[in-house]
Amino acid sequence: MPSLRETLARTRNSVFGRIQTVLGQSDITDETWDELEAVMLQSDIGTQTTDRLLTALRARAEHDGIVKASALRGTLKEELVKLLGQPVQPDYTSRRLLEVLMVVGVNGSGKTTSIAKLSQIYQKHGRKVILAAADTFRAAAIDQLQIWGERSGVPVIAGTPNSDPGAVVYDAVQAAFNRKSDLLIVDTAGRLHTKHNLMQELKKLRNVLQRSVHDAPHQTLLVIDATNGQNAINQAKGFAEAVGITGVILTKLDGTPKGGVTFAIVNELGIPIQYIGTGEKLNDLQEFDPQAFVDNLFDEKE
Ligand SMILES: Nc1nc2c(ncn2[C@@H]2O[C@H](COP(=O)(O)OP(=O)(O)OP(=O)(O)O)[C@@H](O)[C@H]2O)c(=O)[nH]1
Ligand SMILES: [Mg+2]
Fold first, then answer.
1. Which regions in the chain score pLDDT beneath 70?
2. Which of 15, 71, 249, 263 has its CA 20 to 30 A from that of 223?
C-alpha cells in the first residue's frame, strides 16, 4: 500500500514544493502574493478557493504583523487544514438490518475499483457485504464487478447486459435480506446515451432503494477522478443535484500533479471527502485525514 507521502509525490513536487520557494527568506511584497496565487491556481485549487485562502492568509498576516514570507508557511498550512474541515469518521458498525451504500460517478472515475476496496474495508470490520451490478449499460462493467467480487469473496447480484438496473437493485435487496447481508453496495453506470438519461436513471435507482429499504440509500458516495482537476467539480455538481451526495471518494491522487483539486472539492461542493484512492490494488484506499494530507503536500526537508 503506497504511503500518503508517495501518493502525493507528484502534486508535492510539481506545485506545493514551489510554495516553499515563493515563501522564502525575503520580506512579503506584492510579488509574494502574486506568485503564491499563480502557484495555487496551477495546482487546480481553482480561483474561488484560491481567493478564499489568500484573503484569509492576508488578514492573518496583517493581524499578526508577519513580515517574512517564510513565516506564512505555517499559517498557510493551518488555513488549508481548516478549509478541509474535520475528518469524517466512517461508522463501520452495523446499525440496521440492511445498510445501503450507493456509488455514483462518471465513467472511468474508479467506482467499481473503489467498491471492491470498500468491500474489503467493511469485511474487515465484520460486515456481511453484497454487491449490485446496476451498471447494465456496459457488459464489461458487470464482468468487472463479478471478478472483483470473486477476489474479495463477496456475492454479486447482476442482470443481463442492458437489462433494467432498477430490477437488478430490487433483486439485490431481496438477495441481501435472504442471505442476511448487512451492507449492500450498489455500482451504477457512469455513462448512458445522454447525461440527462444518466441522472434520470440514478434518480430511479434511488427511488427503488427508498421503497425497498427504510431510509435507503444511507450513504451516496461520489467517486471523483483527481486527474480531471477542475472539470470534476462541474460533473460533481450534476450528481449532487440529481441524487444528493453524502461523501466523496477521490481517486487516482497517485500519479497526478492536480491534487490541489481536493481543496476546491471541499470548498465549492461543501461535501466532505471520506476516502482517497492511492493506487489500483485492493488495499489502496485510505480514510481522508485533512491534517496528514496537508502535511504530506509540503516538503519539510526544504
Ligand atoms: N492509479 C489509480 N488508479 C485507479 C484508482 N482507482 C481506480 N483506478 C483505475 O481507474 C480505472 C477505472 O476504474 P473503474 O473502477 O473501472 O472505474 P469505473 O468508474 O467503474 O468505470 P466505468 O465502469 O467505466 O464507469 C481502472 O484502471 C482502475 O484500476 C486509484 O486510486 N489510483
Ligand atoms: Mg465500473
1. 193, 300-302
2. 15
